[in-house]
User: What shape does this take?
Amino acid sequence: MAEAKLLSGNDACVQGALAAGVRFFAGYPITPSTEIANAFARELPRRGGIFMQMEDEIASMGAIIGASCTGTKAVTATSGPGFSLMQENIGYAAIAEIPCVIINVMRYGPSTGLPTSPSQGDFMQSRWGSHGDRPVIVIAPYTAREAYRETGRAVNLSETYRVPVIVLMDEILGHLRERVEFRDEDLVQEISRKGPEPGRPFLPYENTEDGVPPFADFGTGYRYHITGLIHDETGFPTNNPVEVDTTMRRVNGKLELHRQDIERTQFVDADDAEILIVAFGSVARSAHEAVRTLRNEGKAVGMVRPITVWPFPEDDIRTAAAGKKAIIVPEMNLGQMIGEVERAVAGTVPVHALNRIDGLLITPHEIRDLVEDLL
Amino acid sequence: MGKIHEKYLRMDKMPHIWCAGCGNGIIMGAFINAIDRLGYDKDEVAAVSGIGCSGRITGYMDFNTIHTTHGRALAFATGIKLAKPRLKVFVFMGDGDAVAIGGNHLIHACRRNLDMTAVIFNNHIYGMTGGQFSPTTFKNKNATTAPYGTTDPDFDIAQLCIGAGATYVARGTSYHARLLTDLIVKGAEHPGFSIIEVITHCPVNFGRRNNFESPAQMLLWQKEHGVAARKAKTMPLEDMEGKFTIGELYRSTEIPEYLEEYGRVIQAANEEKKQ
Amino acid sequence: MSKRWEVRLIGTGGQGIVTASIILAVSALREGNNVVQSQNYGPEVRGGYSTAYVIASESSILYPKIDRPNVLLVMTSTDYEKYLHEIDEDGMLILNGEPGPERMPDNVYFIPITNIAHDELERPITANIVCVGAVVGLTGMVSEAAALAAVEEHVPAKAVKINRRAFILGVRAAREALAQREASATS
Assistant: This one.
């Protein structure tokens, strides 16, 4: 499809977003995501788009939500402390159902932490970081090629389901450059949110069968109201318990209806494995390497890698885990995804943690050692 | 007047939540009068508000409306305007929105000079949460978080905005309703970021605690303390003690509007692309 | 390329170490290899410790880090003993400077990178390209032609000529070092 090139994870996100039709970026510089802002600043004006450096991450989230209200596909990017600051308006986007994409290049925390060191400490924050129950899709690529394709997919899922989508990168993937050769399956389609149906009364928060109401862009003749207050189908505030319950169940349940379309999981030699590794992001590169080496030695080990990490692919994990001797969950945190894995297998298979919190990537060697101990 | 209400308000959303005697309705009235005079198509107007009593204004008006998070209305509005410059964008904030939690957004919006018009409802108190002091509450006033009187000095919003680089700054009151309409019209027509600070009153949560017997008395206070900017220039300084200026306070056309400047960025980027 | 090359470059910020590693990566990529390149910086943009690396291999590169490089080039020190234990047992250590009188281990090479850039080219800024030439000349991990093409792509248009010379002088110095090593081995 195209010539092989050297592409960084951060640049790949930008290319993927542009291919999906993103024409607005607002952000605030922060290591290790800054290259994303730099690239959008260079590329968007060339496409008639807008790059905006805001005064902070709170404003950046506000600005992309505002831009999205007009029908413009909008993205922001951040890391660590900036991601924490965005949570308030991510919650807003979730309940007001405004499509938007947040690229979070995870760095070591809490607080200022280790600004140039990787971490997977935002696995839970990406799902639960705002107050209240809110839906979100979180996607964690593990190569630059995938960062391109998955950021494009993030934009499209956000448009399709009117939900904020987080691309969960980390410092290692963001900063490395690697050979990328795009193939046909990497082609990013441009999908836009569905609009009001002509001739049918427009209800901005209609309880549609597919859980996703139509979106009217500002300035297209539908004068309606958007609010972060819990609202009824008309979009206006309500505290009627029945209406509140209906709205919250639809907004939080809509992704469940479309799991098949949203989930994406990679299985590596999982079928006949005795030991299963469940890993995501950069750590999955080490896990994959460990599987490759161990398989060459004839050892029965495999990997399941959630690419869509939220909603968590519990069925995939449960199916892959059936009859295994043990599961290993390596993470660059003190154990976040492991809780989801344990919940999925519900005690049927022992689950072992492998955590590293010294600012360095878990090595294939460490994973191999644990596999061999358990075999 | 009645017709204007029916044209611009979502009458099915009445009654509004504001207390009897509140100034917010007067400001909303002045605003829809301004829109009527400006002749803007309702489909082309975006109204953006923050949180608190003032934030509810967007729910009552028949435009493209969005009620955002506390203090962040300007950030949302910035995205709307940049992504669809054709829209006429109006932002409604309270004093808490504008100069407490959203103070950072306010000064940067002033600095950028994007063509939007912001109306700040300055009632010197947090009304919706029950009368806590705000950054514009005067010294020695009573508030639920200042049972022994306020100690903090207060912000002068208009001066703050002038200092931050806003290119149109005006101050009105809910007493001088017709003047307020004039100021909003001029602000909207000004090509750049316009701020209209409105001194208004919260009879329930400010007046009651601070020796105002009625909303009318608070309106009279505005009448007596608001001095036309032009007149204030000729008055001895000591006569202005405790008073405030109203009218158009600052206007500059020297600073280019943000999107005009951004046009140059797009041009430069495209020239580089051609090379 | 039959082996997995793991090359690490150590310098100070502003020396162009990252660019040098990108040039090596692009050269290897053009020759059909898989590559991963990355870097670590100190928080200081100039003057801090800077290390960049390249992994090049025919097979796909999953683990994107280097534990013990098989080529380590150090711009900032001639203390070979300090760096010798950081490399793979078959690895090569390249130091920026002149060798001392003592006998070196066989896998340690000295290339006067700074001197070449400063004295022969009179452009200290080209040291990173001398460094690319030295690595290519000593290891043969990529062809000189591929490396030279990548150099020309990654330097400013007005500085192509001087950087081409920088690369060639780096390669030449590498060849001399190899010849000298061979001579002393046979003597």
User: Anything to note?
Assistant: The longest strand of chain B covers residues 244-251. Residues 31 and 181 of chain B are 6 Å apart (CA to CA).
